[in-house]
């Protein structure tokens, strides 16, 4: 069960196919974005001139951003499962 409202498909609302197509397109675009984000060169050599803890702070921030993307992924997946029922 989702901890957020999911759309109800009914005669006066958006059709299931359109919703499914839109959430699928967003999911595919997100997967592309996640792969691109993970492919960014990320190395301590680019941070050492900023202090001893700069790379650790940068890694923490990067990991936080990946967690946010994972949250969006979960949101989209939950909708897709719901629409498939």
Give an overview in words:
It is built from two helices and no strands. The longest helix has 31 residues, at 54-84. The chain has one domain (16-84). The chain has 85 residues and is an all-alpha fold. It starts with 15 loop residues before the first helix and ends with a helix. Helix content is 65%, strand content 0%. 2% of the residues are buried. It is elongated and about 60 Å long.
For the structure shown, list the relevant keywords.
85 residues; mainly alpha
Write the layout of secondary structure elements.
Layout: H1 16-39, H2 54-84
First-last Cα distance: 13 Å
User: Secondary-structure element order, as H and E?
Assistant: HH
Q: Classify the helix fraction into a percent range.
A: 55-70%
Low-confidence spans: none
Strand content: under 5%
Assembly type: single chain
- In round numbers, the mean pLDDT is 97
Sum up the overall morphology in one term. elongated
Number of strands: 0
The biggest beta sheet reads: none
Whole-number total of structural domains: 1
Radius of gyration: 18 Å
Class by SSE composition? mainly alpha
